[in-house]
Design a protein that fits this description.
The complex is a heterodimer of chains A (about 400) and B (about 240). With about 400 residues, chain A is an alpha/beta fold. Chain A is about 45% helix and about 15% strand. Chain B contains nine helices and seven strands. Chain B is globular and about 70 Å long. Classes of the chains: A alpha/beta (about 400), B alpha/beta (about 240).
């Protein structure tokens, strides 16, 4: 189980004093948060990718993550979104392979589409093609990281002739990829098809919906023969704010909640806490709520918390990290390990992926022999042959 | 037969609520005349105002909203009544219909009622609500009911209003009854096949709701058995 934090890097005015940090300060704060995450014993720091205000810090995740990699030892670094729709897959392949080398394999990615219409044309794309872009671009990225001298043509970028990415991935093993989506079944299906991970940000929606997405992914993962449903690689987000005394947490967080980007000026803190996984309270309450995710998601591999948004002061964010590191994460680690079936895999690491690759156990996209998907394909092919025979 | 009123009554004892009650009473008696037993239920959109705003802002539905949308799915006929503000039904009322699932009114007869200060607002239900409810696949009956202050104040106005209510209720129940007899006929056809008879009546349920009954929060697109295989997406 990987436990860590994810950020959307928003620059938001602190509603309690009207102050706004500069972009420069926000970026430096983000680096400080990541270093602190390692110091307090978290496993992962993840950043979103956004190109529109108020999300200014994470416009270029490979640069940020490489910078953090140089200042940390063990911390695993991930995107919380890599925009697979509007970022050229050739750039993704090269930039993240480079970051993977610099970080000695500590990099992983979460693919996301982004849902802000105006952003697409800034990068020469059209939001109406959101899903087809995610499908074609990832398929190209997948090949770029595994094949040399690629000849390729598709709908959304110029063709490639005899292209090989530079650098090729570390030890010939690409960074692990998660596919993130809040509500698109196609993306859960995509994750299952490739045997990749599935990540749900678990912030805006009731768990009943998130559970449906996770179950869909798990069952399709099994269909494609990458393992049993309970062995699929699931990651969840979550949002917390803690103080030793839970009422202090509620009082302190309320103005930030009420004015937060995206959901501010909407539901009350109490309603949002009941209806979504947001937990504002004592470390013990955060522990209990987070452990309850397992009841509907099954045993899972990655838990990321959002703690640094909505204009919260840097000092407060660092205090949140102390609480996570001292009181929450050690307990979660112990409790999540309890009753966890031995055949549920841990979160993939570069080392585990290298072993898997050398043992020839890499997932086969679409399902290899022995999978239900493979049997269905064989049956369809046989049926087609029979029909063609009858036609003749 | 389940008759559901979706009414936006902004004050506790509003004209809109009075009109809604009159329509429900007329529809119930029309159902009795047709030999159908009617159950009635009432939702005041006012009680969902925060839930609707929250859903508009954050995209998710509260339990109250889930429940209200489920009641719409279970109803056989819908009566919807709202006050008119500035030549359109009040925004809170249209928000309810704007946030409900696509096709939420499939196969359901719907009656539109509105209230307003002067007869100048009388076309609001026709021009704003009728297309919206048709978009949701509701079968909106030809007569809509509009009640202005005059209709409550004079003997003649009251008579005219009652006549319009009776006309619209007859259309509503007549349409529901004919949908019912189609449903009953198809159930009778299926009765020849003993295995299907139970299933047919189970899915037909109370009449008129064939195929419309589903959990609004759980969409079939998340069913692993129904998902579009990824290979198909890859082919474009």
């Amino acid at each position: 189980m990987e436990l860590g934090i994810f950020t959307i890097g928003d620059v938001t005015t602190d509603p309690t004093n009207g102050s706004t940090v500069s972009e420069n300060q926000r970026i430096k704060n983000t680096v400080e948060i990541a270093k602190k995450a390692e110091e307090v014993g978290l496993d992962v720091f993840a950043t979103g990718q956004h190109h529109n205000p108020p999300f200014v810090a994470p416009a270029n995740p490979p640069v940020l993550l490489s910078h953090i990699a140089a200042q940390t030892e063990k911390l695993r670094l991930s995107t919380a979104t890599t925009l697979i729709t509007t970022t050229d897959p050739v750039r993704i392949a090269e930039d993240y392979a480079y970051a993977q080398h610099l970080s000695d394999g500590r990099i992983s990615l979460v693919m996301g589409r982004g849902n802000t219409g105006p952003v697409y044309p800034w990068f020469g794309k059209d939001i109406r093609s959101g899903i087809p872009l995610a499908v074609e671009n990832y398929n190209l990225l997948y090949r770029l990281w595994r094949e040399k001298n690629i000849d390729w043509e598709g709908k959304f970028r110029t063709p490639l002739g005899g292209f090989t990415v530079t650098p090729t991935p570390l030890d010939d093993v690409p960074p692990f990829v998660w596919h993130g989506s809040i509500r698109s079944p196609e993306i859960a299906e995509q994750a299952a098809y490739y045997g990749d991970g599935y990540f749900h940000n678990n912030i805006f929606w009731p768990v009943s919906h998130t559970a449906r997405m996770v179950q869909l992914y798990r069952q399709r993962y099994e269909y494609y023969g990458h393992g049993a449903a309970h062995q699929a690689i699931v990651g969840l987000g979550g949002q917390v704010f803690m103080r030793k005394n839970s009422q202090d947490a509620v009082n302190e967080f309320r103005p930030y909640f009420d004015n937060a980007p995206v959901y501010g000026h909407g539901p009350s803190l109490e309603d949002f806490s009941t209806q979504t996984p947001l937990t504002v309270g004592s470390p013990q309450q955060v522990i209990e709520r987070t452990l309850s995710f397992r009841d509907w998601a099954g045993d899972y591999q990655r838990q990321l918390f959002l703690i640094d948004h909505a204009g919260l002061p840097q000092k407060t964010v660092l205090e949140q990290l102390d609480l996570l590191g001292e009181e929450v994460v050690p307990v979660l680690r112990k409790e999540f390990a309890k009753d966890r079936p031995a055949d549920v895999p841990d979160a993939p690491t570069h080392e585990s992926l290298v072993i898997r690759h050398r043992e020839g156990r890499d997932p086969i996209p679409g399902g290899g022999p022995g999978s239900r998907a493979y049997a269905d394909r064989q049956a369809r092919a046989a049926e087609q042959t029979a029909t063609e025979g009858a036609d003749r | 037969m389940r008759i559901l009123s979706i009414t936006t009554s902004l004050s506790e004892d509003s004209t809109t609520l009075k009109l809604s009650n009159k329509i429900i009473a007329a529809a119930t008696s029309a159902a009795d005349d047709a030999g159908l037993s009617a159950e009635t239920e009432h939702i005041n959109v006012r009680n969902l105002s925060s839930d609707l705003t929250d859903m508009a802002l954050t995209g998710f539905r509260s339990e109250n909203l889930e429940e209200a949308f489920a009641k719409v799915a279970e109803a056989d006929v819908i009566v919807t009544v709202a006050p008119v503000y500035k030549v359109a039904p009040v925004g809170l009322h249209t928000l309810f219909w704007q946030l409900i699932d696509e096709k939420a009114l499939a196969n359901k007869p719907v009656l539109i009622g509105s209230t307003g200060g002067t007869p100048r607002h009388s076309m609001a239900g026709e021009t704003v609500l009728r297309p919206m409810l048709s978009y949701l696949k509701g079968i909106v009956v030809p007569t809509t009911i509009f009640a202005a202050t005059d209709d409550w104040g004079s003997v003649e106005g009251g008579r005219n209003l009652n006549a319009r209510i009776a006309q619209a209720s007859d259309e509503l129940i007549g349409l529901a009854a004919s949908l019912h007899s189609v449903a009953a006929d198809s159930a009778a056809d299926n009765a020849d096949k003993p295995d299907d008879a139970g299933a047919a009546s189970a899915t037909t349920g109370e009449f008129g709701s064939r195929g419309a009954r589903r959990d609004p929060s759980i969409n079939d697109e998340f069913d692993p058995e129904l998902i579009t295989p990824f290979a198909q997406l890859l082919e474009g």
